[in-house]
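Input (structure):
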């Protein structure tokens, strides 16, 4: 089923060195197609899980050195072999997508962070493998950036996720700010306070990881600085619509890119 996706950030853009564009695109194609299995259409949950299990079997074939006629996995196998990528991050992504099928609520922030460790952080860790930048500090900063990006996407897509029966806002935060599920998106005082809290938490997390974008070299670092600047810009746009994200979904537009480029070439500021 073809799906037209809006993306906050260009994937494998011209900013990246040419040799890295194909492996990044192959990783993205895997993650995007598996995410679509979990999210798109009206397929029954059992069938979604079966298809995700079939993806896991394809990963096992790659691990065993077996060939595949599936174009997506043949491409991924070439990337994994050429760059000596671990398979565990790909399995973690599948675990996240399975979780999206069966888990619709998160009790607290720690539970949501555990989901992000499966759904977002593996992508950053795979990219660090490609970049050969895998120090403990690099990994920790990458995790912070990726988790922040995942949280930003959740707060940007609250209305879309609610239509799918999912609420990523932690239940303890809803209770703390006096927002019932029936009131999600009403943009009253309590809602604005709740979203302002989530925005500040995501911004602080992003800024804690942002130094990675200054330590990675050349065009790799520039690409990451653009991504960090884009995430922070979405948070500004959430604030700019007074947190009414269900009626005014914040998106990056063509007019934002000159500002992002300027910020990417300047010191990162809160």
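Output (sequence):
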């Amino acid at each position: 089923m073809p799906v037209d996706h809006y993306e906050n950030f260009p994937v494998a853009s011209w900013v990246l060195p040419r040799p890295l564009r194909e492996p990044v695109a192959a990783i993205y194609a895997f993650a995007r197609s598996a995410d679509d299995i979990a999210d798109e259409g009206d397929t029954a949950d059992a069938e979604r899980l079966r298809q995700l299990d079939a993806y896991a079997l394809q990963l096992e074939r790659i691990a065993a050195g077996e060939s595949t006629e599936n174009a997506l996995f043949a491409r991924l196998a070439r990337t994994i072999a050429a760059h000596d990528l671990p398979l565990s991050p790909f399995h973690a992504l599948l675990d996240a997508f399975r979780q999206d099928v069966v888990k619709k609520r998160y009790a607290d922030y720690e539970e949501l962070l555990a989901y992000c460790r499966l759904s977002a952080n593996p992508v950053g860790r795979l990219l660090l493998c490609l970049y050969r930048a895998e120090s403990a500090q690099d990994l920790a900063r990458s995790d912070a950036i990726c988790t922040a990006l995942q949280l930003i996407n959740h707060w940007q897509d609250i209305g879309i996720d609610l239509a799918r029966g999912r609420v990523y806002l932690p239940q303890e935060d809803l209770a703390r700010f006096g927002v019932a599920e029936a009131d999600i998106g009403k943009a009253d005082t309590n809602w604005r306070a709740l979203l302002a809290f989530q925005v500040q938490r995501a911004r602080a997390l992003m800024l804690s990881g942002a130094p990675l974008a200054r330590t990675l070299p050349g065009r790799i670092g520039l690409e990451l600085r653009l991504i960090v600047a884009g995430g922070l810009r979405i948070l500004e746009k959430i604030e700019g619509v007074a947190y009414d994200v269900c009626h005014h979904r914040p998106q990056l537009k063509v007019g934002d890119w000159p500002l992002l480029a300027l910020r990417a070439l300047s010191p990162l500021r809160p």
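Notes: Residues 23 and 263 are 27 Å apart (CA to CA). The chain is about 65% helix and 0% strand.
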